[in-house]
Amino acid sequence: MDVATIVGSAALATSVALGVPAAVYAAQCLLGCLPARRRPADGGGAGRVAVVVPAHDEERGIGATVVGLLSQLRAGDRLVVVADNCGDSTADAARRAAAATSSAAVVSVLERRDDARRGKGYALAHAVASLAIDPPDAVVFVDADCRVAAGSVRDVAAVALATGRPAQADYVLRAPADGSALARIGAFAVVVRNRVRPRGMDRIGLPCHITGSGFALPWSLAGAVRRLGGDIVEDLVLGLESALAGRAPVAVADVRVASELPRRDVDAATQRRRWEHGQFGTAWRYAPRLLLRGLALRPAAFALALDLMVPPLSMLALLMTGAVALGALAAAVGAGLAALAIAIAALGVVALATFAAWLAHGRDALPFATLLRAPVYIAWKLPLYLGLVRGRETRWQRTRRDGER
Fold it and tell me: CA-to-CA distance for 359 and 342, rounded, in angstroms?
């Protein structure tokens, strides 16, 4: 085969292969710009609810989290804080906050230490094991640095009980008030990933992934938490295992959960590395299995497989730009314009869908002038993606909080 044929074939295959995740991403974003699908949630009908809070060295913020959650619980409910492998006074701070708060809920502060088994998954498993003696009807999982919108903890539990499936709240991470342009663009990227795309799936009756804090399980599914182990994206894995078992997660747009991104860009980079490297490894393990389930007429599994195959927005933009360059090379050597046309179209729909998501969900937090600096953000993340070549991150690592050394 001559050079033109080889280059043309490679360019066309690349453009078509990347066109699939580009189309999925664009469809999710455009659908996610429509009004959210409302799920009737009656927190009063949620039965007995347990809220689990894994906490590793969270002495400075755990008190506010405990107070906020207890204000939403009632008699018969439980709050379980797991001070996991802590080197500070997280457990004491949680107990002081609970003692100072008037609530009918029962509070348990568990202290776990196991240097060989570190990570959030182990902390969640420890809490669920403690609840098995007197099981609640539903369990809600909230990270120690998160705030749940007032009056809605029991609502997400009610959706989980009504559907018999995991229920994921609207969980976003905001940029600090004095955060850099990179932090603001990063916060918008989280909004696209955790709010816009799940809403797009939900608009047409498809499931979502568990994106982290603010998800609920009926007790019948809580046993799966005890098998999480040390996976660095334990929440995502839990949702995928539930989907394989026929209980794919549902999105609950009405319940808002929020945290804050690190103020220092270097800490944000560490956090992103753990998230995205973990997602790549998880996609590699689970996407083929979900696709096979989809071929057996399981649309929920097939939809989640397609969603898993969409890389992070920065990487998708980089890959599509590379596809455009390869298509241009193919055209230059006389291999035709098909590959270039497909790549340009795919990159265009990704850009259009992202702009639509910004119009619907990002204008308040991200000025347009800052959005235009997205190429700088993509370049900032290049070392993260190059790190995949050297070796994927597999260890759980807590993100450093503001003010910590």
Answer: 26
The structure's pTM equals: 0.90
Q: Could you give the CA distance from residue 53 to residue 127 in angstroms, rounded to a whole number?
A: 9
CA-closest candidate to residue 368, choices 351, 381, 355, 352:
355
Task: Residue 241: count other Cβ atoms within 10 Å of its Cβ.
Answer: 18
Pairing of strands 250-260, 138-141: unpaired
What helix, strand, coil percent values describe the chain, rounded to 5? 55, 10, 35
Across 32-44, b (16+ Cβ under 10 Å) vs e yields bbeebbebebebe
3-state SS, residue 286: helix
Q: Taking the CA atoms of 150, 154, 157 and 163 in sequence, report the sign of the dihedral they define.
A: negative
Range scoring the smallest mean pLDDT among 159-173, 229-243, 367-381, 384-398: 384-398
Write the pLDDT tens digit of every residue in 114-128: 888 888 889 999 999
Question: Is residue 338 a contact partner of residue 16, using CB atoms and an 8 Å limit?
Answer: no
